[in-house]
Write a structure and sequence with these properties.
PLAT/LH2_dom_sf, alpha+beta, 9 strands, PLAT/LH2_dom, 4-stranded antiparallel beta sheet, Lipoxygenase-1, PLAT domain-containing protein, 30% strand, 5-stranded mixed beta sheet, 21% helix
């Protein structure tokens, strides 16, 4: 009796099977890479949200503030003190940032802020101002081994949803110290129209601590 004929795979069958397996393996790797990319994107977004929410995470803190503060190059112009910032718009809406270094320092771990010649950058989230900042108060707590500080200027930009980008620069050129003129631990700059600030009173030469304005910690 004759053996039944053997069924042989068509020519090139083994090569096509190997190619199919290779393609399947490649597709699996591509899918895995896409999943990893998606997860890393989610983690990056979460980290960004955590960075901004450091201000307080309140629902009304929808605007992002970026501050650039230049310390003068004069001898002993740097300071170890804690610096607070208050800003206001022409409509009298104001916010205060207590200890701006802890609030939003961006210069990295181990960096020494407010040293002579530094341009320090800070950013974080807070309640929105409805008009560009036109009033500023810088306050030093006078702490640290060297409390005196000479500030050249402060520049602030703010932006938020459904609003434009505001930018304001305040020239300081003043010591914040108790042992040199003007013998004050704060500096106030008022570029707002006086009439529009009537509801708040005279903001010139007033310490931010006396304003009773909302604080960001």
């Amino acid at each position: 009796m004759q053996n039944p004929p053997q069924l042989l795979p068509p020519q090139g069958f083994h090569n096509s099977m190997l190619t199919s397996r290779t393609m399947a393996t490649g597709a699996t790797k591509s899918a895995a890479l896409l999943i990893l990319f998606f997860i890393s994107s989610l983690l990056a977004c979460a980290a960004s949200d955590l960075r901004l929410s450091k201000v307080g995470g309140k629902d009304d803190e929808n605007c992002v503030y970026t501050f650039y503060i230049r310390t003068g190059t004069v001898w002993k112009g740097g300071t170890d003190s804690k610096i607070s910032v208050a800003i206001a718009g022409s409509d009298s809406v104001s916010i205060e940032i207590t200890n701006i270094e802890d609030w939003g320092g961006l210069m990295g771990e181990g960096y020494n802020y407010f040293e002579r010649g530094n341009l320090d950058i800070f950013a974080g989230r807070g309640p929105c101002l409805s008009s560009p900042p036109c009033w500023l108060n810088l306050t030093s707590d006078g702490s640290g081994e060297h409390h005196g500080w000479y500030c050249n200027y402060l520049e602030v930009t703010t932006t938020g949803p459904h609003s434009g980008c505001f930018q304001s620069q305040f020239t300081i050129e003043q010591w914040l110290a108790t042992d040199t003129s003007p013998y004050k631990l704060y500096a106030t700059r008022d570029y707002c129209p006086p009439v529009e600030l009537a509801g708040v009173g005279n903001l010139r030469d007033v310490g931010a601590v006396h304003l009773g304005i909302p604080q960001i910690e």
